[in-house]
Design goal:
With about 250 residues, this protein is of the alpha/beta class. It contains 10 helices and 9 strands. It has a 6-stranded parallel β-sheet with strand order 3-2-1-7-8-9, with helices on both faces. Strands 5-4-6 form a 3-stranded antiparallel β-sheet, with no helix packed on it. It binds 2'-O-acetyl adenosine-5-diphosphoribose (OAD).
Length: about 250
């Protein structure tokens, strides 16, 4: 493993533009379960019934049962060593941006400045009927939260059947097309269109470094360096190796 860590650190140090793509797995060690692992959110809630925009429009009270559980878990979570390690890489000038599918705000709390939120953020809410916007602190503890117009509010996270925020999608695609190293951390990479980004970076000639507990659909065909293990451990080792090579 040490040889692979060293190789990954060399790739990051030699790259003019490095990106990190993250998924639910990076926040598991902060206490937030992922979606598709055993015991994950989609084991207990059918995403068709709870995570599509059509189910929200049909029965928002029911969808808020899941959203309430998520919100209570996310409220207690704090950034872990993997979030902090990525913020450190950005601070050292070794990482341009984090592109995340997560809506938990933990990258920002860890100190990352350039975070592209591909699936939105749970910290604000919008009324689908009158388009009023609210910060989540205004509605904290209200389940379900209501708009002044009397309708139930939706958090600004992307539900299945909704479009990816256009700026996040465009910027991610542009960056992936020119990056030279790509870290992919804690994602099963099965959700589209996010999973186009690793392929885009590969086509651009980037070195693909994957950190995951398990092999994914990317591991055998797209990934160049697989660091199989916990995100906290692998990111910390990568940051330490990069510092050592730089003499820091
Ligand atoms: P998944 O639950 O599909 O995948 C999580 C990945 O993280 C798996 O490959 C795990 O092996 C890995 N993992 C778990 N714990 C880990 C740890 N401690 N260290 C390293 N890896 C670990 O989650 P995502 O890929 O993020 O979208 O799912 C993508 C999207 O599907 C989510 O953004 C959400 C969901 O439906 C929407 O709701 C639109």
């Amino acid at each position: 493993m040490d040889g692979l860590i060293e190789k990954a650190a060399q790739a990051v140090l030699g790259s003019k533009l490095t990106l990190a793509l993250t998924g639910a797995g990076i926040s598991v060690e902060s206490g937030i379960p992922d979606f598709r692992s055993k015991g994950g959110l989609w084991d207990r809630y059918d995403p068709e019934e709870y995570a599509s925009i059509y189910s929200f429009q049909k029965n928002p009270e029911k969808v808020w049962l899941m959203l309430r559980e998520m919100e209570e878990i996310v409220d207690k979570a704090r950034p872990n060593a993997a979030h902090i390690g990525l913020a450190e890489l950005e601070h050292m000038g070794l990482l341009r941006s984090v592109i995340t599918q997560n809506v938990d705000n933990l990258h920002q709390e860890a100190g990352s400045k350039d975070v592209i939120e591909y699936h939105g953020n749970s910290r604000s809410l919008t009324c689908l009927w009158c388009n009023r916007h609210y910060d989540y602190t205004e509605k904290k503890g209200e389940y379900p939260p209501y708009c002044a117009c009397g309708k139930i509010l939706k958090p600004d996270v992307v539900f299945f059947g909704e479009a990816i925020p256009i700026e996040a999608m465009t910027r991610s695609y542009q960056l992936a097309s020119i990056c030279q190293a790509l870290l992919i951390i804690g994602t099963s990479a099965v959700v589209s269109p996010f999973n186009v980004l690793p392929r885009q970076a590969k086509q651009a000639g980037a070195t693909i470094i994957e950190i995951n507990l398990e092999k994914t659909v990317l591991s055998d065909h797209i990934t160049d360096i697989l660091l199989q293990g916990k995100a906290t451990e692998m990111v910390s080792k990568l940051v330490s190796a990069a510092k050592k090579i730089k003499g820091l």
